[in-house]
Write a structure and sequence with these properties.
alpha/beta; Metallo-beta-lactamase, Chain A; 7-stranded mixed β-sheet; 7 helices; globular
């Protein structure tokens, strides 16, 4: 299954644009997050040669501008797109999805989006005194389970453990996305990365809010199995 990175702080190929936030296209059909600016999202879609009509479903990881706001222009051009969010998203965001023409789909428990694509939520967290919720994607392929996280505000280990528990018996292949470790002290980062390694994940791909130190520590522990998710990159899982 192919993961095409559409939006990230860094670029992995010439001609793509960077931007604070995250977005990727899974299996050529499922958009996971939408970044902050639709202009960047649309530019990078075009660089990949991806038509808007190819997008069949949208999953938004959490209710923050840098994962959500690129969605609005997309819905204007593709009214009727199903958009999957957590129950804990703000009512204003849910209303905006409806008002922009999206078909709102709200879930609290894990949900099978496709035969091999699952939504895992709802993970509660507090951000600047506000209770919020986040969800991640889990993909099952011949290599095993791969997880994509937007920011992991609730903790990447908590997400990884739930996926492992509910998809037990399947090898753990790749875990990537925002690990939200950019303002975390080195010792704690190392504990998180070592825990991912001890759980049995074969590959990691930290990006966005993971921070440079976390990326360096991942490279130290996972060596060539630490992958880049810069905009323009394609990964097969």
């Amino acid at each position: 299954m192919k993961i095409q990175v559409l939006y990230d702080n860094t670029i992995a190929a010439s001609g793509f644009l960077p931007g604070w936030g995250f977005s990727c296209l899974v299996d050529g059909r499922v958009l996971f997050d939408a970044g902050e600016h639709s202009e960047i999202l649309f530019h990078n879609l075009e660089k990949f040669g991806i038509e808007l009509e190819q997008i069949e479903k949208v999953v938004i990881s959490h209710d923050h501008y840098d994962h959500r706001d690129g969605l609005w222009q997309l819905l204007k051009q593709r009214p009727g797109l199903p958009v999957y969010v957590c129950k804990g998203f703000s009512e204003s965001t849910k209303a905006a999805i409806r008002n922009q023409g999206g078909k709102l789909r709200v879930y609290e428990d894990p949900y099978k989006l496709e035969s091999d694509i699952f939504i895992f939520g709802e993970f509660a967290f507090e951000y600047k005194g506000v209770e919020m919720a986040e969800q991640c994607l889990a993909l099952t392929t011949g290599n095993g389970v791969s997880v994509l996280a937007g920011c992991s505000h609730a903790g990447i280990i908590k997400m990884a453990r739930r996926v492992r528990r509910m998809l037990g018996g399947i090898p753990l292949y790749l875990i990537g996305g925002g690990f939200h470790l950019k303002d975390v002290e080195e010792q704690k980062i190392e504990e998180v990365i070592r825990e991912l390694q001890s759980m049995g994940w074969q590959k990691v791909a930290p990006t966005h809010c993971s921070g440079a130190m976390a990326e360096d520590i991942c490279k130290y522990y996972f060596q060539e199995n630490c992958l880049s998710l810069g905009a323009g990159n394609e990964i097969i899982v």
